[in-house]
Amino acid sequence: MFRVSRALLFASALAGAFAACGPDQTSQVQPQLVPPPDTADFGPVPVLNEKHLGIDVLNVGRASLKVFSVTLREDNVPFEIVSHPDELGASESAPIDVVFRPPAEQDYSATLTLATDDPESPLVDVHLVGKGSTRAVMEVEPDAIDFGRVAEGDAAVQAITVRSTGTADLILEEIAFAEGSSPAFQFLGSVTTPATVPHRKENGLPGEIKVTVRYTVEPGAPDVNNAVVRIRGTDPDQREKTVAITGTVNRAPIPVIADLGVGAPGMEVTLDGSASTDPDGDVPLSYHWVLRSKPLGAMTTIAGPEQPVTTMTLDPKLPGEYVVELEVTDAAGATSLTPARASIVAAPAEKLLVEMFWDNTVTDIDLHLLEDPSVTFGTIPGDCFYQNPNPDWGVQGDPTDDPTLIRDALTGYGPEVIGYVNPPENKTYRVFAEFAHDHGAANPASAVTVRIYEYGKVQYEKTFTLNEKGEVFGVADIDWPSGKIKPLQ
Ligand SMILES: [Ca+2]
Ligand SMILES: [Ca+2]
Ligand SMILES: [Ca+2]
After folding, report:
1. Ligand nearest, relative to CA of residue 371
2. Separation of 315 CA from ligand 3 center, angstroms?
3. Quick one: how far is CA 109 from the chain centroid?
4. What is the β-pairing status of strands 240-250 and 144-151?
5. Which of 57, 216, 461, 464 is deepest in the core (most CB within 10 A)?
6. Distance in Å, CA 185 to ligand 1 centroid
7. Quick one: pLDDT band at residue 256, thresholds 50, 70, 90?
8. Alpha-carbon distance 272 to 328, whole Å?
9. Ligand nearest to the CA of 154
10. How far is C-alpha 277 from the chain's CA centre?
11. Which numbered ligand comes closest to the C-alpha of 149?
């Protein structure tokens, strides 16, 4: 658009004024209005927004210029004259303040009439034009989020809704955490910008997006965590909105298991978790006991797995280690970060005990204990095995110096156990494993483990593979009472 600067107008007006000067000098003592431009264009203005324009009135005359009125010719137009000068001294200028407030998205025009005492142009019209345009409006909800207490080691999620309620699509330019925000808060999902939020969806409702924030409470996190989410968009009234975020911490309770003591097969063990605590006092605690591991084949269970104090009875026949874990949960729902763990070993009462188990659930492996290396494998009474489970060794007729097949197993995983409470001295006992039955197993190969306990402690362990029925593996010789173990292969 061609615009004439005020300086140029002023210069041309002066030139005109001098040109009008004739021989009659009194004609110069008059007001002289420099008419404003024909048209004042407000340009596009978002609907319901206001835009002011100043329409300059300039008096280049030598007398003051009286402004009688500034009016709009039309009714019901979205222009309004806010103020205007009443009088302008010689060479003075002042603006007429006009406001444009478009009620809808369309073009508007009106005519402003300026009435002055300028003798040449007492009435001057200015054409007012403007366009009601669209604009984006950004609504953010909520303006603050309080996650409250979240359990240590846990996380929570909340969403911020950004709604586009204007007449133009909202373009989000940035979604970010303000500097200094706690790293405990992170966005979940995409916050890539620019992102366009339509002002109207297919169903006619305002478009919206969700900004999801996750609050992760790492173990040992500070008690209070704060952040601010900044959302910047093309709403001209408010380019940026912020959401204050806060969260506190529910400390995880700490499980404690009292010492389990010394175990033996058949013993009732007390599991006492009553010393467990919660750092911030969310009581009562709830308890969860788990028997994490036990000797293969042991039937032991925990009597009251949800009780603070309970018991378990160790398998009466099997030696080995039992591992229990205790998890506690506080009254506000925080669970211990790591369970407490305790173990107890059921040490066999027998001076000598041989245990065997295997990894194939179908096959049957047999354990043999020979009274002496010279005994023929599989013969009675010198071989203690399933067909000869309690032979009379040592002093004939005296059962106190006899071995016993404590546990027989016809399929995997075993175990089979031979216990010897009181082995006679100056002897060498020999251990064998025999692949007895494959029960039609498609894959009969079995990894067999034999453990030898002396005075309650594991002194020897060996794992080997038996591939097919009839295979016999010589495990070890045990010298007694020295307890020296000599592997056979
Ligand atoms: Ca707590
Ligand atoms: Ca067997
Ligand atoms: Ca005997």
Report:
1. 3
2. 27
3. 57
4. parallel
5. 57
6. 20
7. very high
8. 12
9. 1
10. 26
11. 1
- Tell me, in angstroms, the distance from the centre of ligand 2 to residue 437's CA: 8
User: What pLDDT is recorded for position 34?
Assistant: 94
The rounded Å distance from CA 218 to ligand 1 centre is 14
Ligand 1: centre distance to CA 252 (Å): 5
Q: Give me ligand 1 centre to Cα 23, in Å.
A: 102
Task: Tell me: pLDDT of 6 over 50.
Answer: no
- How many angstroms separate the alpha carbon of residue 307 from the centre of ligand 1? 19
Looking at the CA of 386, name the nearest ligand: 2
> What 3-state class would DSSP assign to 247?
strand
Sign of CA dihedral 382, 386, 388, 393: positive
Provide the token pair at 212: 């999801």
Ligand number nearest to the C-alpha of 248: 1
- The 3-class secondary structure across 36-105, one letter per residue, is CCCEEEEEEEECCCCEEEEEEEEECCCCCEEEEEEEECCCCCCEEEEECCCEECCCCEEEEEEEECCCCC
Q: What is the mean pLDDT of residues 291-304?
A: 93
What's the gap in Å between 443 CA and the centre of ligand 2?
18
Q: Which domains does the chain have, with CATH numbers?
A: 6-133 (2.60.40.10), 138-250 (2.60.40.10), 268-346 (2.60.40.10), 352-487 (2.60.60)
Question: What's the CA-to-centroid distance between 371 and ligand 3, angstroms?
Answer: 12
Name residues whose C-beta falls within 8 Å of residue 92's C-beta, 6 or more positions apart in sequence: 58, 59, 64, 65
Closest ligand to Cα 397:
3
Per-residue confidence at 201, pLDDT binned at 50, 70, 90? confident
pLDDT tens across 168-178, in order? 889 999 999 99
Give me the percent of the chain exceeding a pLDDT of 90. 83
Quote the ligand 2 centre to 258 CA distance (angstroms). 38
Q: Is residue 23 over pLDDT 60?
A: no
The most distant pair of C-alpha atoms in the chain lies apart, rounded to whole Å, by 164
Q: Residue 236: pLDDT band by 50, 70, 90 thresholds?
A: confident
Give the separation between CA 243 and CA 141, rounded to whole angstroms.
8
Quote the ligand 1 centre to 256 CA distance (angstroms): 15
Q: What is the pLDDT of residues 122-150, one digit of tens each?
A: 999 999 999 998 888 999 999 999 999 99
pLDDT reported for residue 245? 98
Distance from the CA of 149 to the center of ligand 1, in angstroms?
9
